Amino acid sequence: MDFSLNDDHVALRDAVQRFCDGEYPAHQRGNLETPELAATRWAGMAELGLLGLPFDPELGGSGQSAIELMLVAQELGRSLGGGAWLSSVVLAGQLLAKAGTPAQCSRWLPALASGDLRLALAFGEADSRYDLSRVATAARTVNGVCRIDGRKTLVLDGDTADVFFVVARSAGATREPHGLTIFAIDAKARGVHVRPFATLDGRHAAHVDFDGVEVGADAIVGTAGEALPLLESAVDGAAAALCAEAAGAMEALLDLTAEHLKTRKQFGAPLAKFQVLQHRVADMLIALEQVKSMACAAAMAVDAGDAPQRRRIVSAAKSLVGQLGRQVGLAAIQLHGAMGMTDECRAGHYAKRLLVINQLFGDAAHHLQRLSAQPQC
Amino acid sequence: MKLEFSAADEAFRREVRAFVSANLPADIKRKVELGLRLEHEDYVTWFRKLESRGWITPGWPVEHGGPGWNHVQRYIFDEETLLGGAPRIIASGIQMLGPVLIAFGTEAQKKRYLPNIRHSSTWWAQGFSEPGAGSDLAAVRTTAVKGTDADGEHFIVNGHKVWTSYAQWCSMMFALVRTDPTAKAQEGISFLLIDMKSPGVELRPIRMLEGGTDLNEVYLDNVRVPAENLVGELNKGWSYGKYLLGHERTGIAGIGSCKQQLARARTLAEQQGLGDDPLLRSRLAQFDIELMALEFTALRLLSANQKSRVPAVEASMLKVRGTELRQAIYELLVDIAGPNAVPFSAEAQFLDCVGDLPAPVELGTLAANCLDSRKLSIYGGANEVQRNLIAKAFLAA
């Protein structure tokens, strides 16, 4: 059992922190990005090596583990930054790296690492909530041509993705664990309709319709009909990174809150002198330490590759982070008083991100349930 | 970073587990598992078994009989002994006085007292709290006046200590006493070792809400204490007291106890036919999550380069979270008992009387255990005081 960081970890963390301090000025954090700003930041992340972090060196990456992803996610969380990094690199990119054929990997991963291409994983549907097997999107194969029909919802950064990895059902009834297949589909392919929208936390997503989209067998990523374990591990990896993002966001939010409590005076004294506020801050700090610990544990569990242990620890982490992140986010608004209700104050932007983090990849209740269904270790 | 314990740690875990299962007497184990009262000789019996293996003083330096474990080993030891049904180590001599004597005591004091602590032949009472003082230890009013007579240098001690745990089993007490009444609150306090058999020491047990009498009041009426019983420097007792309270870091989260009680909850839930109750299952899973977070946080904060944001308050954070989690688990135990939590008999909480309990023996102690657990957030500096420490360190301008 070892939670210590080595020198390389610290160097990576510091480099990302410097990048974030430059790219995400404190008073703009959480604002909706313009396309121009998003492009500049994306190029900067490519230059820093963040877009290829988990991929093999021959594919333009640096072969880092979930620990390094955690450190990056934490810094991005601190600055409410990162754009499509989580959806494109951590979620879709790692799924491809794990299951793609050599041809698929060399076609897309170097371009992703260099910042020239973005990927998005389209797995959710209107009725699926957090159930990854609940897929109605249909894939029918006739004479070697696959025809995809269905509607995918909340595709993170689906508005700017160049390639979608789409989860479709090639066999079995909705909610059956078998029969799911992942297809790579070009965003410009005939029959793909992207409906972009802004998200609560000032980011981007899209609902994407696939109307009779035709692809060949070479579009299949991983094993046909057996995509669920792959999908589950990719989503767990992203959930672990989100836990780290939440830790960073909570840390920055606590700093903001401390600054406010130390400077704002009421009844003749700084707010920081009021015991009832101190006790709330103490509980927020304890929550932060637990979230940091669980983010570390989740990253280590993702790296360990043992599926039952990974499920158990990621679920525990995501559930606790969901609960505590939202609690801390909303408590910070209260501690900022009416100022905390304004768009100008950054506390609300952190709270919004923390709220969204709970709703992505399984909320606290979902993961509590998944954990309670797991056998005891 | 690595999530697994090393092979050496796992081997150590097996070693501790085997030792507990081979050496813990069955009746003591049964008392612990049923939440019944332990008696002095139960503790002494178990502590002497640990002593014979060199394991009774995990926090002491090797030259004074400590085993030289790192924090992970201490953590594993704590967890394995408690999961194996052993009593927790509560003797304040081992956890509190020992480290202070080792750091600040004279050679003569170390030689005289440390071996007896290790052998459990001397039990020490902690004479810190006083009526009306609560967690404010600096409010010490018990006085010690230095004098000299034909029998040599001594202190005359007068005052009233309270909440003195297990004083009925103790032959000695370490106490904070005021030696300079003119100094500011935290200055002018000294750290004194008092023989409980001295004339003028009177003990009164306090009956607690769960029926026990392990806490006492201690009245000190012109008690004569030899000057050689002063620990460290005169009027510097406050800093030794603080050292003592901050010393016990590894065990402060009580993770072993949490696991012990959560395992008890699962067993009892099954026995009560509640194994498939969805609400209970979800509460148990929530505790699994919170316990995991506490455990990883304790291991992370105690490891080398991952300190908390607020220096030196790790122990406070772990105390707050660990005690509140344990209390919540005890509340769950009461819910599992259902109506069987209502019958009560203070006497029947002893093993030889369990037949007299008006409720099934596994359930009849749960409410009393829950009430007893309320002390966790009060002693050792109430959790509100811990929260003040955490926040003040973070919000310091």
Topology (elements, then pairings):
The complex is a heterodimer of chains A (377) and B (397).
Chain A: H1 7-23, H2 35-47, H3 66-78, H4 85-99, H5 102-113, E1 119-122, E2 138-142, E3 145-156, E4 163-169, E5 180-186, E6 192-198, E7 204-216, E8 220-221, H6 228-263, E9 265-266, E10 269-270, H7 275-304, H8 307-336, H9 346-359, H10 364-373
Parallel strand pairs in A: 1-4
Antiparallel strand pairs in A: 2-3, 3-7, 4-5, 5-8, 6-7, 9-10
Helix pairs in contact in A: 1-3, 3-6, 3-7, 4-5, 4-6, 6-7, 6-8, 6-9, 7-8, 8-9, 8-10
Chain B: H1 7-23, H2 26-34, H3 40-52, H4 71-83, H5 92-104, H6 107-118, E1 124-127, E2 143-149, E3 152-165, E4 172-178, E5 189-195, E6 201-206, E7 215-226, E8 230-231, H7 237-247, H8 255-271, H9 278-302, H10 314-337, H11 366-373, H12 383-395
Parallel strand pairs in B: 1-4
Antiparallel strand pairs in B: 2-3, 3-7, 4-5, 5-8, 6-7
Question: Which descriptors apply to this entry?
Answer:
heterodimer; A: 377 residues; four-stranded antiparallel sheet; 10 strands; globular; B: 397 residues; alpha+beta; 12 helices; 8 strands
Polypeptide structure, described:
The complex is a heterodimer of chains A (about 375) and B (about 400). With about 375 residues, chain A is an alpha+beta fold. Chain A is built from ten helices and ten strands. Chain A has helices at about 5-25, 35-45, 65-80, 85-100, 100-115, 230-265, 275-305, 305-335, 345-360, 365-375, and strands at about 120, 140, 145-155, 165-170, 180-185, 190-200, 205-215, 220, 265, 270. In chain A, the strands form three sheets. A four-stranded mixed β-sheet of chain A has the order 1-4-5-8. Chain A has a four-stranded antiparallel β-sheet with strand order 2-3-7-6, with no helix packed on it. The longest helix of chain A is centred in the middle third of the chain and has 36 residues, at about 230-265. Chain A starts with 6 loop residues before the first helix and ends with a helix. In chain B, helix 9 runs antiparallel to helix 10 and helix 10 (about 315-335) runs antiparallel to helix 11. The radius of gyration of chain B is 22 Å and the shape is globular. In chain B, the strands form two sheets. Chain B has a four-stranded mixed β-sheet. In chain B, strands 2-3-7-6 form a four-stranded antiparallel β-sheet, with no helix packed on it. Chain B has twelve helices and eight strands. The model of chain B has no long low-confidence stretch (mean pLDDT about 90). Chain B is of the alpha+beta class. In chain B, about 45% of the residues lie in helices and about 15% in strands. Classes of the chains: A alpha+beta (about 375), B alpha+beta (about 400). The interface of A and B includes residues 300 and 320 of A.
